[in-house]
Amino acid sequence: MVYLYQDPNLVDTILQQLNEHNLQPKDINIELTERVLFTEIKDQNNSLRRLVENDINISIDDFGTGFSSLAYLHNIPATTVKVDKSFLESINNNTVTRECINRIVSTLGMKSLIEGIETEEHANILFSLGFNIQQGYFHGRPKPLAHYVKSVKCTALKEDSFIN
Hints:
alpha/beta
């Protein structure tokens, strides 16, 4: 793990890799924990701001598990807030907290993604509360990187065969 504040060349390295692989900054989404984000926002010339200035998406991972503070949330230049699965406990009760989080995040111009969806019932309840971006085993299990690399190569080969 590399901390943004530990590697002054990290942003340049990311931008260089995007350029070398013909990707746009919006094609990447960097997930950072609240701890890293709150450390970064204290510094006006930080890597986080450079990433955002270069149109790279930033997500706040595991929101609500430790360092969360609404006083700081509006200062974080994130595009997405990933609400921790701990907010799913007693999902049928106390929907008010989840609704408030979703409303605040939306008001700040960010997207909210809720983690830990394991059943269709959970997915439906959360859709009804406005959590349209969801993550969890109900929607699909994690796959190794090789699966996606193979998939991209197959797609590229199919596209090339149509061109020729």
